[in-house]
Structure formats: C-alpha cells, structure tokens
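Reminder: ligand-aware prediction takes two inputs, not one.
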Amino acid sequence: MDQALARVRGWIRAADRLVVLTGAGVSAESGVPTFRDAQTGLWARLRPEELATEEAFRADPPMVWDWYAMRRAMVAQVQPNAGHQALAAWAQRHPGRLTLVTQNVDGLHQRAGSPGVLALHGTLDQDRWLEPPRACCHAQPPQAGRPPRCATCGNLRRPAVVWFGEALPPGVLAAADEAARRCDLMLVAGTSGVVWPAAGLAHAAAARGRVVVLNPEPTELDAVAQAVLRGTAAHLLPALLAEGDDA
Ligand code: NAD
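Here is what comes back for the chain with nicotinamide-adenine-dinucleotide:
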C-alpha cells in the first residue's frame, strides 16, 4: 500500500491538470450516511430511487419534503472531514490545477473552502419552484407549509437538487466533462460509480489520462483505473495531498 500511495503521489505532483470526482463516501466520515446506508428508521422501507424523483414528490409532496428536511438538518450538524480539508488546502496551494467535481449535495466541500466546486447534483441548501414560476410566484414570499407554496396559484417549492431521471445543470456538466477530457489524472473518491452521467466522467478521463479509485469497497470504476487504493477518503486524501509532497 505504501508503494501504491507513493506512486500516486508522484502522479499528483506531475499532473498539471488534476480532477477529483467525489461521491457520498467522502462525507461518510463526517457522519453523512451514503444512500446505501441512509435508509434507516422512518425511511427504511423506501429506496432513494423512490424518494428522489419528481414522480415521488408529485405523489406525496410532504413526504419527500420531510425527507429532505431531515437530510438538511443532518448536514447542518456535521463538519467537513480531513478529506474535504485536504482537497481545499491543496487547491489553495496550487491555484488553477485542480477541478473538484462532486455528486454530493451536502455542501461540505464548499464549507471546507474548496473554490469553484462543480456540484453535479446541486446542493441541499436551495429550493426552487416545481412549475415555471408565474408573476404571482415572484410577487410574494412563499406561504409556509410542507412544502411552502404560492398563495395564489399553489405552485410548490421543491429542493433544488437533481433527482433521478432529471438532467444535470448543463453548464456544470459541460465544465466537468471538459475538465475530465483534458486532465492528466483523475482521483475518484467515495463513489460507487453506478450513477450516470457522473460515472461517465471517469471513462472520459481514462481515454487520455490516468484514473485512480479511492474506496474501501470494489466499485464499478475499478476496471478503468490504473490504480485502486483501498481505504477511506479521510485517510487517503490527506495521505496523497499533504503538504511536503508538493511539486
Ligand atoms: P453511493 O451511496 O452509491 O456510494 C457510496 C460509495 O462510498 C460506495 O462505493 C462506498 O464503498 C464508498 N464509501 C463508503 N464509506 C467511504 C469512506 N469513508 N471513504 C471513501 N469511500 C467510502 O454514492 P454515490 O456514488 O455518491 O452516488 C449515489 C448518489 O447519492 C449521488 O447522486 C449523490 O448525489 C447522492 N448522495 C449524496 C450524499 C451527500 O451529499 N453526502 C449522500 C447520499 C447520497
């Protein structure tokens, strides 16, 4: 493992263009459950694919709103971990070399101080209108409730995250795709690699540069990687990006 770490550290030093793609596992050590772990307690019977969709929201707006309220409350109580911090510190020491792309909606990379995070799936701390807003929606603050609504037309507020089956924000995806295609090295941390098009970014990177997977478990992206480091993000990211190993 030490040899593999040293080899990847050398690749990072040599990379002019580094991309890091993160998923839920990067926040696991902050106490944010991954989707696979998240289905406990009240929500144990429902799969994320049945909650995080427009159909689910339209069928039962309060239920989906409450699930997001629970996730927001959970995220508000946790802190960025050593993995988030190592990425932010490296970006600050090497301006312009790192593009950080995340599938996470928890905002922990941003809170750690990472600049210019490409949040493929949006962030939990914002809402938007379900239907295109009319003049009445703009004219007054939404009426409180679960979810809040326009008092005139009934339009509902919904979390401004990307749900299953929805398109990713086109500008964000295009920027991530370009960074992936042009990079020398991509680190893929804490993602199972099953959610597309995020997983496709690793395939795009592998066409030109190297891909390294950081994960305690096997992933769908191990097959495209030049190296797979088995371990947790809060251990491996600081080990790879610590000051002193810099070019
Ligand atoms: P996932 O739940 O499919 O996979 C999580 C991955 O993290 C697994 O491969 C697991 O082995 C790995 N992992 C677990 N603990 C880890 C650790 N300590 N260090 C490193 N890796 C660890 O999550 P995903 O691949 O991100 O994709 C599923 C979707 O879930 C995404 O669309 C994402 O938006 C959403 N999601 C986000 C959050 C969040 O914002 N924190 C939480 C749950 C789900």
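The first helix runs from residue 2 to 14. The domain at 2-31+80-121+167-245 is CATH 3.40.50.1220 (Rossmann fold). We will return to this case in the review session.
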